[in-house]
Amino acid sequence: MNFEFSNKIKRLPPYIFFEIEKILEEKRRAGADVISLSIGDPDLPTPQFILNTLKEESAKPENHGYSNSRGEPEFREAVASWMKERFGVTVNPETEVTALIGSKEGIAHLTRAFLNPGDKVIVPDPGYPAYLNGGVILNEAVPIFMPLTLEKSFLPEIDFVASSKAKMMFLNYPNNPTGAVIDKRFLKEIVEVAIDNNIVICYDNAYSEITYGGYEAPSILEVDGGIDVAVELHSFSKTFSMAGDRVGFAVGNKSLIEGIVKVKSQVDSGLPKYIQNTAIRALKSYMNGEPPKEVKANIATYWDRVKFLAEKLKEIGLECEIPKGTYYVWARCGENSMQTARKLLDAGVAVTPGIGFGEHGEGFLRFSATRPIKDIKEACKRLEKMRTNFHGS
Predict the structure, then answer these.
(1) 3-state SS, one letter per residue, for the chain
(2) Does residue 85 sit in the same domain as residue 166?
(3) Pick from 260, 284, 308: which residue ends a domain?
(4) pLDDT, tens digit, for every residue of 213-257?
């Protein structure tokens, strides 16, 4: 029998990363040699001390029972300590912290808890597709697309936010896909307009630790009033190369956190205790707000990659900047991004077309530096051979 999808599911656009993976699989099955610079899946090793802790904790029988949906008290206390040490932010581990199965879960649960059909939500464009798909469409809310343009350094327009009549907005800096960063002064303006207009801010800070050149990503909770309107999401996927372990957390306004927990408690039984205990060890590896040497080494590797990649892409003829955060290079291709991505794929290089991140992503390509430098160099050689195919020539 065939069953019809709900109207909400029918409204979902194709998930760009799933589509890319499907095309890649078909190409490889046909024997094609393709270097993928498309998906942001960390390839650098998980620090050995984390793997050792995971092995120890998973061997304990008491860690295989049900866990608290909000997260075990020890995990929440470790999060609160990390926020204090890293950002100078004080949060109550009892009411202003919850564990997450990755930050993507936080997006889904926060929106489910507070949005009604027809509510307006500011969605950055270009932006991470989960904001629109899992956050807005599946809640039958109305997206208000906020253009992030090169001319404005991919930062939001304060006047746009003020006039939006939105109930919620998504923000993400360091930004996926553009690599743009933000400072506390700008965050203060956003918080002030959110307070004035009663707008919930979902601040996705998943790339806070992947930064370069002396730039340090702030927390929105550092800003006066931030705790009144915002929830901030963090992930262990990028910082500690723990993408497959599915662990993150949300911190912020206690009523917003309570909403996440109310939904979460109806959907799952919480993170495995051995994962939480491993995550505690990871958080405690920070000393005086500084990451451990293993994380610093990984960040240095990402820096070498994005610097090399951005410089080579500029030589080839793609306009881009070396990012101050994330491991992405956002490059202007000057034509239909899907067509350009297909040309690159034919040359043996997979990238993500900008249109997959929204209308204002058109004309750009996202390159992910989550491959060894030798693969990135080989990919650039392949692109060099087809440089005349860029910009529609």
Answers:
(1) CCCCCCHHHHHCCCCHHHHHHHHHHHHHHCCCCCEECCCCCCCCCCCHHHHHHHHHHHCCHHHHCCCCCCCCHHHHHHHHHHHHHHHCCCCCCCCCEEEECCHHHHHHHHHHHHCCCCCEEEEEECCCHHHHHHHHHHHCCEEEEEECCHHHCCCCCHHHHHCCCCCEEEEECCCCCCCCCCCHHHHHHHHHHHHHHCCEEEEECCCCCCECCCCCCCCHHHCCCHHHHEEEEEEHHHHCCCHHHCCEEEEECHHHHHHHHHHHHHHCCCCCHHHHHHHHHHHHCCECCECCHHHHHHHHHHHHHHHHHHHHHHHHCCECCCCCECCEEEEECCCCHHHHHHHHHHCCEECEEHHHHCHHHCCEEEEECCCCHHHHHHHHHHHHHCHHHHHHC
(2) yes
(3) 284
(4) 999 999 999 999 999 999 999 999 999 999 999 999 999 999 999
Question: Cβ(269)–Cβ(67) under 8 Å?
Answer: yes
Do both 92 and 123 map to the same domain?
Answer: yes
1: exposed, middle or buried (C-beta count within 10 Å: 0-12, 13-18, 19+)? exposed
- Count: domains in the chain: 2
Kindly state whether residues 271 and 318 are assigned to the same domain. Answer: no
Q: Are residues 27 and 126 in the same domain?
A: no
Say yes or no to pLDDT of 289 above 70: yes
| Domain with 333 in it | 8-46+292-386
The whole-chain average pLDDT of the chain stands at: 94
**pLDDT tens-digit map of 308-354:** 999 999 999 999 999 999 999 999 998 799 889 888 988 899 999 99
Residue count of the chain, please give it: 393
Residue of 314, 323, 294, 201 lying closest to 251 (CA atoms): 201
Which pair of structure tokens corresponds to residue 289? 């707000």
Confidence of residue 12 (pLDDT cuts 50, 70, 90): confident
What is the pTM for the complete model shown? 0.95
pLDDT given at position 30: 76
Q: Same structural domain for residues 270 and 124? A: yes
Same domain for 29 and 62?
no
pLDDT for 393: 41
Say whether both 71 and 155 belong to one domain: yes
